[in-house]
Amino acid sequence: MDLDPEDVFKDEEDDPDNEFFQQSESSKEYVVYLVDASRKMFSTTCPGNDQKDETHFHTAVSCIAGSLKTQIISRSYDEVAICFFNTREKKNLQDLNGVFVFNVAEREHLDRPTARLIKEFDCIEESFMREIGSQYGIVPGSRENSLYNALWVAQALLRKGSIKTADKRILLFTNEDDPFGSLQDAAKKDMTRTTLQRAKDAQDLGISIELLPLSRPDSEFNVSTFYADLIGLDGEDLAQFMPSASQKLEDMKDQLRKRMFTKRVVRRIGFHIANGLSIELNTYALIRPTVPGAITWLDSVTNHPLKTERSLICEDTGALIQEPPKLFQPYRNENVKFLPEEIAEIKRISPGKLRLLGFKPLSCLKDYYNLRPSTFVYASDQEVVGSTCIFIALHRSMLKHNRFAVAYYGASNHPQLVALVAQDEITSAGAQMEPPGMHMIYLPYSDDIRDDEEIFPDTEEDAPRADEDQIQKAAALIKRIYVKDFSAFQFANPALQRHYAVLQALALAEDDIPETTDETAPDEEGLTRPAVVRAAEAFKHSVYGDSYDEESDMGKEKMSEASRKRKAIAENAAKDYDWGNLADKGSPTWNVFS
């Protein structure tokens, strides 16, 4: 059997399924949307984006619908379930009253969102009262606790998977801050106790419960009445909860069609410090380029993803080869055979661990050493207990002495030296802006750095230099158009925005393609401000002079030196021939240029 010998020792660095682009099973997220469907959710209104009043139920449904559409793009492997409580009809595996699990055919209750699910959920308000119905929450004289039942159903839905391989969350939408307010004395205490215990049982299983409150126009949602105990809020967290919760709700309503790599563990690596002392680190990919999703081949009948399988066929007999293939490398007219294990061992230069080599001042770390996105690392006690304590001590010492660590990263596909730069925690208004940890910067090899003389060779004519007045005018112009508090996260890729909008319209069979905003376009209104116009005119006059005619200059053809030489040669060659005479005689054109 012949195999391509070039593939035997092929480098794996450009593999699209490498560590930073592979969405592994361990990065999944399971979410249950728990929506209060009581009468208050339909009777209470609030101003929407178009300043028209909309019910709290409509707000919750629109938030979830937008989140599902974004999830297909940003986190396609995550699985969701939608559950209503305080409903007239019931639909759940536990057969509990007042809880309805919304789903569509050919889909499990907790599964990846589909186009059919999104289309039917978008129209649920039209048929909700007819098919599902709404009822008041917990009422006096009844032992039915719909909130307790809803938490039970949500917990049962999240039994799928393990907390070691997936994050599990319950997102609760409601505008009722005191679900047991209509009860008295013993009945109220009993239902409050059992509901809080049910929430605690879910949290003990690794399920986080997040509240998204909807405040009524006449009064603000009082989280202290009941839900602070249910989700475990106290102290400063309780005081900051309402602003953060409202911001989270706005984020869901206004999510962009972005593909964002969520801050999840990429891989775990060992960090060997000295004398047999090693700790465990989690690595995170903070910033990576965003690209359209990979093409997925689907079955033409079932529309299910196809799984690719490869079989090897013998050239001589045409039979399937059951034995594993043997790899070889030609050497001196002979094929040297290798086992797959031997190839893997040859490629493995060192175990995939960090090994500390020493420390250097931060002044030695140049900006141009950063050739690729860095990786953020933080300690983990999951396998090596005590890693966090050692990491914190090392982190504080590096910050105190303004040092960075030099280490050898023995990655299997690209081993190299790295710099570990400590980052202190940055907070603003009680919220964490930057986490504490270390950035692992991949240091370049010597041939990765080019001298200025190699990039910009000396020329006979010196490049023009700006005078002091021109520099001052340019600085004044830049100051006028400077973008304050700039962040790359403020701007979405317009091409990807359009791409995702077209995909959404095709998948949901929508007549119109959703509009997208190009946030990278110049701010025309800002550029017409008088101060900006004056600064631009002053800069133009200092560089080009008062007699500069912009329109005539725009009409001039701009050519490089090589283009001008080629044009001159062609014009001179054409002058040597009488084209009319040659055409009359019928001379072949290829003789002209021979």
Automatic annotation (TrEMBL):
GO MF annotations, alphabetized: helicase activity
Keyword Cell cycle: no
Biased composition (Acidic residues): 1-18
A Pfam family the protein falls into: Ku_N
Gene3D superfamilies to which the protein is assigned, alphabetical: 1.10.1600.10, 2.40.290.10, Ku70, bridge and pillars (4.10.970.10), von Willebrand factor, type A domain (3.40.50.410)
Region (Disordered) residue spans: 1-21
Subcellular compartments: Nucleus
Main location: nucleus
Keyword GTP-binding annotated: no
Domain Ku stretches: 317-460
Keywords: ATP-binding, DNA damage, DNA recombination, DNA repair, DNA-binding, Helicase, Hydrolase, Nucleotide-binding, Nucleus
Protein's UniProt name: ATP-dependent DNA helicase 2 subunit KU70
Source organism: Gossypium hirsutum (Upland cotton)
